[in-house]
């Protein structure tokens, strides 16, 4: 389409004189116009050109124009079609519209209508194309196309998620921290019939019990100190769409009971209210805990566990999908290179070997952070092993990329560093996980030069 053109049309008519006349009229209105004498020729033009509006005669030598309309709309839903005929009938008009035609007019009698009709069809076609482009971008941002990996574990998880997406079934996503559970939840929502409605996510471990109840279910004015006005909860905000409850294993017992009621009846009572609120919400949940074991211990309601776990999807940790590390790294390199305006094209073989040899306690989230750091530090066009945190360079690899160390202190040093990475530098939490005192940890940090 030229910059001066108002849009591109295809005129399909076997009567050359009429076709040329219509083409000239439309060109004078600043439209770019293609021509075809048969339906098959028209379909070939559509394969090679981006067309906004088709104007087709009904009586074509090879295919009836009304059937052609159905074929074009099936293959190119954004294209608008105006059907022309010398012998209009009501039945033909009705069938044409049912097949997806924008309008159906009679030749000769309606010549004065063709220009405004084309203008309206063009406006609708351009709008539909923009909608399709936005949907494509949305799918790339939030859909399954966003999930990177070809390993067996992640491929199996994607297939399960795609199959359950079209339903309203509650899904429980299982996996370690940082394995991409929210990304999967967003993709399931985007591929579902609820995709045009809200997707609302909340981390259940990030709030106190009282605050989380208000966040989830809302409250009425005066229901507690500070409740100065009515507040909608996230279940109301997500009405018609999907709510994603991350770290659901941290949910308080009282809130578990309220959540069970929502699952069973799609109803709940706001804090301070006396009547129920009805919603239509699909629930997706995630946890890094073994909820079956937590239920057996009495830490999680068994009835809620069984309602949540109708359909379980387990996401593999990155250490079990080594072949995906290079793909993920390339994706993050592209992302962060663009952000910091650098021309980084890839990484060295040694860089990848170090990544594959590492145990990744923080999974994809940790890999993303490591790549971002390396990109910031990089002065060349490739990431090399010197840009990795020093604990990566403590790793030596065998032929099978297995970690090899020969003395106890080296293993201990590496393990402490990994735990510190996992706790994002929180030394008190690291000491707890290592099952040693904080003073002992500080002594070892000094001994190994990790301060």
List keywords for this structure.
451 residues, alpha/beta, Rossmann fold, Helicase, Ruva Protein, domain 3, five-stranded parallel beta sheet, 18 helices, 16 strands, extended
Describe the biggest sheet?
5 strands, parallel
Mass-distribution shape: extended
The total count of helices amounts to: 18
Number of discrete domains? 3
Known CATH architecture of the largest domain: 3-Layer(aba) Sandwich
Number of strands: 16
- Which percent range fits the helix content? 40-55%
Oligomeric grouping of the chains: single chain
- What gap, in angstroms, lies between the N and C termini? 63 Å
User: In CATH, what is the homologous superfamily of the largest domain?
Assistant: P-loop containing nucleotide triphosphate hydrolases
Sequence of strands across the biggest β-sheet:
2-1-3-4-5
Summing up helix and strand content along with how strands pair, one would put the structural category as: alpha/beta
Any idea of the CATH class of the largest domain?
Answer: Alpha Beta
- Give unreliable regions as ranges: 397-406
Mean pLDDT reading? 86
CATH-defined topology of the largest domain: Rossmann fold
Name the beta content range.
5-15%
